[in-house]
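stage 2 :: seqdesign
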């Protein structure tokens, strides 16, 4: 059972976007986006990727962002207005399992950190929809986290492993999403595959989900004791204050081209 429904705030997404700018640029490179292209960002949130994509496709292109959160969509569209790119950027309400788009209408599509917040059983359906709306020869890009690779430098390796496993298995609906992407692209028939694995290193506890959120939840579920919770927080705060904090998790980008024949 997953203890978290995967919801995060727009403020959180914007902060993460700043820290992950190089990773995001790499995912755009996978899309092979050019001027005049029509592209999709699925799970667009407050528009942290649709606006950079708008620059890449130019005002003779088109960017469509789709999300199920109306509040975030309104924020994304306001951001497009503020950036004066609303003429070729559109944010739509829709389901990842049934995209409100026609077949073969896009030059490239992407979904970043979407699969980890949805049940693993939906992975093939979501990728199938991305493939359906992308034209033959267009690229489909998936980017996600492999939370099973997460690690934190901590004196008690047993406690650290227990907490990392708990987070991946129980605090993400699909904490292993990142490691599934390569096989998923092959299974759905994409060709000309490309894979990048990027270690995301953090030097501040507050930039990770391994502070109070993890500890309070793990303590409530009986995974750790009160003493262990205090040990974890105290040591990591001390490490941060002395410049010795280290946490890392692998981010995975897998992409491929839609073939001429239906997948």
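stage 2 :: out
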């Amino acid at each position: 059972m997953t203890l978290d429904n995967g919801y995060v705030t727009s403020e959180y997404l914007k902060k993460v976007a700043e820290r992950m700018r190089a990773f995001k640029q790499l995912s755009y490179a996978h899309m092979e986006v050019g001027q005049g292209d029509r592209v999709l960002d699925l799970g667009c949130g407050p528009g942290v990727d649709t606006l950079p994509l708008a620059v890449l496709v130019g005002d003779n292109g088109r960017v469509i962002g789709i999300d199920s959160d109306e509040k975030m969509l309104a924020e994304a569209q306001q951001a497009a207005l503020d950036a004066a790119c609303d003429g070729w950027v559109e944010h739509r309400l829709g389901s990842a399992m049934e995209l409100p788009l026609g077949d073969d209408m896009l030059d490239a599509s992407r979904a970043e950190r979407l699969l980890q917040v949805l049940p693993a059983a939906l992975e093939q359906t979501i990728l199938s929809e991305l493939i359906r709306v992308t034209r033959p020869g267009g690229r489909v890009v998936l980017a996600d986290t492999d939370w099973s690779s997460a690690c934190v430098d901590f004196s008690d390796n047993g406690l650290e492993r227990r907490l990392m496993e708990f987070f991946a298995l129980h605090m993400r609906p699909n904490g292993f999403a990142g490691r599934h992407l390569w096989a998923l692209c092959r299974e759905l028939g994409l060709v000309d595959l490309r894979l990048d694995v990027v270690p995301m290193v953090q030097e501040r506890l507050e930039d990770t989900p391994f502070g109070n959120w993890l500890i309070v939840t793990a303590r409530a579920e009986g995974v750790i004791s009160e003493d262990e919770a205090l040990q974890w927080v105290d040591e990591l705060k001390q490490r941060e204050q002395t410049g010795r904090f280290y946490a890392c998790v692998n981010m995975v980008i897998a992409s491929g081209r839609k073939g001429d024949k239906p997948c």
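stage 3 :: structure notes
- The longest strand covers residues 134-152.
- The beta strands are 38-42, 62-67, 89-93, 106-112, 134-152, 191-202, 247-257.
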